[in-house]
UniProtKB/TrEMBL annotation:
Transmembrane segments: none annotated. Residues 40-277 form the Four-carbon acid sugar kinase N-terminal domain. It comes from Aspergillus flavus. Residues 347-407 form the Four-carbon acid sugar kinase nucleotide binding domain. This is NADP-dependent oxidoreductase domain-containing protein. Belongs to the four-carbon acid sugar kinase family. Belongs to the aldo/keto reductase family. Aldo/keto reductase 2 subfamily.
Amino acid sequence: MTVSNYIVSLAEAQTRLPPPVASSRLLEQIDQQVEQLPILVVLDDDPTGTQTCHGINVLTVWDDATLVEEFHTCDRGFFILTNSRALPTAEARKLISDICTAVKKAAVQAQKTFEIVLRGDSTLRGHFPDEPQIAEEVIRKVDGWILAPFFRQGGRFTIDDVHYVADAEGNLVPAAQTIFAKDATFGYTSSNLIDYVVEKSNGSIPRHRVQSISLHDIREGGVSAVAERLLKFAQGSIIIVNAIVDTDLEIFVLGLLQAKSAGRNYIYRTGAAFVSTRLAIRPKPPLSAGDLGLNTEASSPGGLIIAGSYVSKTTDQLQSLTSGRGPALKVITLDVESLLNNTESSYSTGGITSSDIATKGLRMRRAQIIGQASAGVPLWRCDEPSSKFSGIPYVVFPGNVGHQDALLDMVTSWQSRSIEKRPKMQYQRLGNSGLKVSKIILGCMTFGNPSWEGSPWVLPEAEALPLLKKAYDCGINTWDTANTYSNGMSEIIIGKALERYNIPRSKVVIMTKLYYPVLEPESNARPNPAINDGVLVNQMGLSRKHIFEAVDASLARLKSSYIDVLQLHRIDDTHPEEVMRALHDLVQMGKIHYLGASSMYCWQLVRLQYAAKMNNWTVFTSMQGLYNLLYREEERETNKFCQAEGIGLIPWSPLARGLLARPWNVKTDRSVKDAKTAKWFSVSATRYYVKLSDAKKNSIYYLLSRQPFTRSVGNNWSISKLCPIGKGIPLPKP
């Protein structure tokens, strides 16, 4: 594959490939077979391979007694920490040989069958092909090696046999172009895994021995096609597994199990995701200090953070931690060179440091993997009396996982502090639907590109992300955006917030809109006027073509498989039947759950609603219009129609573009730049309604107290005001 053919983003991959299989029962099908399968013994070349598992053990020793006991007590599998990535090749080969010999002997004594996974780095560093070669020599000849480095939680994807690493912006970088490929010990030049195998074997494994299971095999052919492909491969094949989402790997494993039932046997060189999938271990949310029963009072013992990784990501995470925690963190720096003799050498990454701390510092022999401290970050606990500090949680933070603030976020979440009660946000059904939304909705128009022409005030990503997290913590579960805001950046930031803060998708209601054109994310422009002609032809409006394309693009930016409420941002002269049929079809596909309208005359809303009703299509659940103490035009017709139809009303600009948030004669940088304020709202009305500091509470309460208005969309709250803003004060109805 040439450089020009590389995929640059997951969104691009989605356009090239068949859609992924959406099934919640695939892992259940694997689970039904696990007890009849051989015990899975995972030889982990550093401790981070446990990052997708929980409820199983990891051993740091492999004597007969320990292994036999583990074979007797485990029901699925277990890890053995080899730390072989820290060793020269010759020593690593001998270590793997010794461990495989010990495992084989213990399995015979325990009368158990087993198979071996050599869990390796998802960025392709490690002793390959040496480790699977030695394992095969010791245990038995197999039909093939499975090479599956996919690891979604860490942003590692295999597409068209090319392995990618996702950067902080969600771009896909071919693995050979990353810092990991420049590793002094395990460096490589090939991102294509076929070429990688040939390169790492120095040509001893020819290209014709390397086969692959493609995403077309997985998504179009399914389980039976995967099994059929595996059964056709010649003995001794190295088999690459392509995967982008978890269901890709789940389908592959089900096909693999069919091939195994036909007599095939394999050795596996994989990332962490394969292990949890093969063991049918369902993901669970990261564990907090409270989940572990830890005392977080200020007088309780603190924690010890030991870092020894050389990669730049760890350096960035440490800098974020030290600057973010300030004097609450005591920093001790050791000069490695001064601790070593001139003749000594050092092999060190974050995972290898963790291995030494576990085995030599904490004297762990057997620990339980109890879950993850954050996405992709394993959490162990050793309860055996042989451990130096029995019962304490041990977090294994990989050197190549997480965003810049991941370590800071985790430490902060475990810090000593008095427990604050989460504000009690009120929730209400959206219209006649069963969907419950927060009475205060977070408007996200002002998240994105500060130079965007569509708004005089926009917060950049670094400032927007903490606001989204704070809104979620305050119980504001409903976020409103549109595809056109900052040319898609608002949607991208929402997707990043869910990922960065590990917010379950099911816990938030995402509302977005379509109509206007979306330019490149880095563009500052917003076409004004926007006309469906010339360079913008079919790039805007409500045609079936544009609706479908806009929804797919929004899903990619949000990193979600569905939109809770899709709203029509504006309306054009497209025939109502075409509009409502397109929306109905998207609901039937599962891409949209509810429909909403926005900023249209009542007669236009009526035409669309009854076009849907007459054809038994999905009708509107919400209507979002400009409505506040200064602009009450909607009270003439729209509000009454929506109340009669059971359509929930969502006012936008409830604070009249900030006028109701301050004394009428006070100007801000934002108000000076905002030409629409003077255009939309009269000075006399402003003077009448705005009463100093109580104005915001009054205006919000006014909207929340109106019927059928039940919610209010607000933009650009400060963090300090997000939680209390929902507490309005009584205001007589005018």
